[in-house]
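Our working data are protein records whose layout never changes between entries. Instead of coordinates, the fold is spelled out as a row of discrete tokens. Here is such a record, shown just as it appears in the course material:
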Amino acid sequence: MSEFKKINLADLASTYEPIPDGEYEIRLTDVDPYVSAAGNDTLKATYTIMKGSHKGSEILQWYSLKVNEKNGKLSCMGLSQMASIFRKIGVPESMYSTLDPEKTAAGRLLSKLVKGKTMEAYVTTEDRKDDPNKTSTRVNVVGLVGGTVEEEVEEEE
């Protein structure tokens, strides 16, 4: 038997507050390989807000690694999103010209090229169409704060 008393859920205060839409400085702090409920390989990325009134708040972003074929061409939403981030923060294309949709390899690449770098991003939160009681947060990276990854690579050489 549980040592805890029964709790009336209606009496609990919600600790979840959606992050208001806007521009934030964020940093990728964690990448976990994940299998979705549908059985698809996915990356779960955790971004942390670095400044402002929401400093320390975490944003979860999922990157689906499911490869689809349409009109004879292969596509993968998650890899396309990752490639967009790489371009926006100035990662030389030679460092990601061939992306592996296998979740462990893709996660390592995302961590290697993005983790620990402070980026400017526009964050939006919207109600989910499949469940009006849930929200979905989107991270749209605008660029790297204070330069580009390409500049960092040149400095290391």
